Here is the input.
Amino acid sequence: EVQVLESGGGLVQPGGSLRLSCAASGFTFSSYAMSWVRQAPGKGLEWVSSISNSGGITKYADSVKGRFTISRDNSKNTVNLQMNSLRAEDTAVYYCAVRGYSYSFDYWGQGILVTVSS
Amino acid sequence: EIVLTQSPGTLSLSPGERATLSCRASQSVSSNYLAWYQQKPGQAPRLLIYGASSRATGIPDRFSGSGSGTDFTLTISRLEPEDFAVYYCQQYGSSSYTFGQGTKLEIK
Here is the structure.
């Protein structure tokens, strides 16, 4: 059974930093790209970032480019999202997702809340 | 960036009825890279359809996807009580992913 579990969320002040982690199991982690998708309170889904199976290719939404960094450790089956220079508009539930071969998000974690507020 | 527009915003139907949800793209989308998700309150989204028409693992056959180019459709042939939720379409193109704004399927 595929399991995806996020951690590291919480309350942070504007301009601050936070590091989200995602632990995955139940599949061959090193064979799949991984992604982060967020959802602001009461809003729709927004793709944030993706990383290839090897970690060699990373992509970011324009809204986070230059502020967020995605990374992975295939030896630990984990993916991280380092978030710097946080803004109020980054407040959202952040989901870690397994990106399938058809560029869909096949499995999702339960999500972790990040609140940026003073 | 490809913009996906879903319609209607809210769809009110009764259990047993047929639901037709639309997703229109601002430019042509590869059918290989069009997906649909279901999200219930307080839960993560769940993949229903990938590649425009392929059902994900464990998805009942009352859910079907169709379309190509700029117009895609999710059809639920006979609504069950557990199908009332928000549905999103999603595409991949030009190294970016976008979602539609969602259609809320509510009980009439």
Notes: The two ends of chain B are 35 Å apart (CA to CA).
